[in-house]
Each structure stands twice: as C-alpha cells, then as structure tokens.
Amino acid sequence: MILATPGPVEVPLFVRETFLKEIIHHRTPEFKEILIESLNRFKNLTHLDEAVFLSSSGTGAMESAVINVVKKKALTINAGKFGERWGKICNAHNIEFKELKYGWDTPASVEEIVSEIKSGEYDSLFIQISESSGGLRHPVEEIAAEIKLINPDVIIVADGITALGVEDIDTTNIDIVVGGSQKAFMLPPGLSMLGLSEKAVERIGSGRGFYFNLANEIKKQRDGSTAFTPAVTLIIALNEVLKKLEEIGLENHYENTANRHKALISAIESIGLSIYPQVPAKSMAAVYFEKAEELRKVLKTKFKINVAGGQDFMKGKLFRINNMGLIDEWKMKYIVDSLELVLEELGIRKYDSTAIKAYNIDRF
Ligand SMILES: *Cc1c(COP(=O)(O)O)cnc(C)c1O
C-alpha cells in the first residue's frame, strides 16, 4: 500500500533502519551529542535562535505554545480543523481569545487581522502556515510583518506542521514555529518541535504548565538534556532526516518539492478536476470532488494507494494527496496515472493518459 496521505507520510528505509539499533540511555554523552546536533540542524531549518523538542504529537507543541505565550489575550485564525484547535486549547485552559474565521478555501485577510491587532487587546497571534484541512496556504509572513510594524510585542505563533521541511519559511517576523514528526520530517508520529525567537523566550518567562512548561525545556535542552525522558529513537531518526536533507541541500529539496507540486496540480487540472483552496499550500494537492469517497475507495482497493479524504463538513467532497517528504518519483507518477484511471472507472472521463503527460511536461 502506498501511503499518500498528507500526514502521516511514508517513512523511508534509511529512517526505519535507525530503529534497528540498540536503544541508548538519554542521560549519556552519546545522546547529548545527538540531541544538540539535531536541535542545531532544526534551528538552521527554521532560521530561529532556539529550539525545543517535545514527546507528543504536533498538537502538544501547539498547546505548549498557547499556554506559555498568552499572558493577556490571543487572536486565533480558524480556516480549518487545525486553526479551530487554537480556540479549543484556549478554552481548555480558560485563556481569553478571539477567533477570526475563514472558509476552508480562503486565506486569512491581512487587513482584517491588522485592524483587529490595532485594538491593542492582543499579545499574541496563532495561525497555520499550511492549513491541512483544505490544503490552504495563509500569507503568514506578510501578516507577521504587518503586525510587527504595529506592535513588535505581539508574539506570532505559526503552526508549520505541514510547512516546515516543505518550503523555506521566512521567520524574520515569526516568534514560534511548530513542527511535527509524521509530516514533512518523514518520521513516525510522536515527536513535536518548536523553533523560538529570543522574544518568544522572553515572553515565556518562567513558563506555565508542568509537562509542557517551555521555560524548563528550553533551559534543559540548551545544555543537551531534557526535563523528562525524550523520544530518543525519534530524535536520533530526526537527526538522520535533517542530515539527509542537508546532503541533498535544503534549497534543492524545496525546489524539487515546489516543482513536483506544480506538476501534480497541473496533472489534476488537466483531467477536469479542481483544486479546492484559493491559495494551495505546497504540502499537498486538495481536490474538490463530489465523489471523493468512491474515488478513494477505488484508489485503495484497486491501486493500493491511500489518499486522505475531507474532514468535518468537507467529508465526501474532498480528497488530498501528499506532497511532503522524499517521494519516489515512480510513486507520484503511478498516483497521477491511477487517478485518471479511476475517473474512467467512475464513468466520469475516458482514460487517454492526459494526466501523466501533463505531469511529465511540468516536472522536468
Ligand atoms: C497534523 C497537523 C497538526 C497536528 O496534529 P497531530 O495529530 O497532533 O500531530 C497540526 N496542524 C496541522 C496543520 C497539521 O497538519
């Protein structure tokens, strides 16, 4: 079965091989060296001064950012399930917030956010870079730059779980960026990461919470240790993934990902299907399709390809194909070609290899 969902993504063999080695103790010089190495590599990737890893899925890092950063009131952006989550976290902790809501296909409005921030009520903004529910890219860099012009003390927290490792994120005006292991980092689930600016560390102060107290973790991890037992095997594997991406060259990796995305989108459009979001994120192709569930079923049973469906009110109306990680070229070609074959199977369009042609023309 080809796992073509936009998280979890397939775990390459070189990553799985790291799990065959003997487990090492986390309070050893060996592990300390690996932890520091991988934190440094992660800092290099996020262009931020500080980094912290947590043993949790991505949502744990989102929760830690919310509870440690908001001292007054948060502004949260909701254009999908993950944006909605900021508000749910605030509610769970009785943290004051206001939510700006957008359609799942609609990027957040810079003007609207700016006018909200001008009220002076907010000390933080929470947003997704790539909102995975609709495969949408928010103009986070622009929003962050505008907010910092108005009030540099507003801490900008960006969920980069389906953006880090996909494209180079300009974090000049971003204070915290959140990552998760099972998306573009090609690892099994269970590790989350945060990149932090000095300003974010200042705001966190002595921190809040217990397990997710970021002040404790920052202090420990600066010295190559952790407050609690870390996800040792995942951190070792992350170090190998980041090493591999550096070998390939981050710029080359981003360029290849962007090019494959362009080719995938043009293949999908060439067979009459439409891309759902107004501004597509490079992490995936999210396709609006009324027979999405039938299509996913045939893809899975006949072609052994697992793509994601829609969530919530988009269930049955959307399917999403992953574009994160080091995807074997033959696999993407097979997915594109199979997609066209499924349309014939569903009686929608006669197969004439249009999709794979469009893909190949744009790909190289
Ligand atoms: C996957 C994902 C998350 C985190 O989900 P977990 O299941 O907690 O790892 C958060 N934000 C976005 C945009 C995601 O795609």
Which series of helices and strands comes N to C? EHHEHEHEHEEEHEEEHHHHEEHEEEHH
- Runs in which pLDDT lies below 50 for 5 or more consecutive residues are none
- Helix percentage range: 40-55%
Strand content: 15-25%
Calculate Rg over CA atoms: 21 Å
What about the largest sheet?
7 strands, mixed
General form: globular
User: Which sequence of strands runs across the widest sheet?
Assistant: 2-10-9-8-5-3-4
Mean pLDDT metric: 98
Oligomer: single chain
* Count of the separate structural domains: 2
CATH superfamily of the largest domain: Type I PLP-dependent aspartate aminotransferase-like (Major domain)
Protein name: Alanine--glyoxylate aminotransferase family protein
GO molecular function, one term: transaminase activity
Cofactor: pyridoxal 5'-phosphate
Domain Aminotransferase class V: 24-311
Which features does this protein show?
Aspartate Aminotransferase, domain 2, 4-stranded antiparallel sheet, alpha/beta, binds pyridoxal-5'-phosphate, 2 domains, about 375 residues, single chain
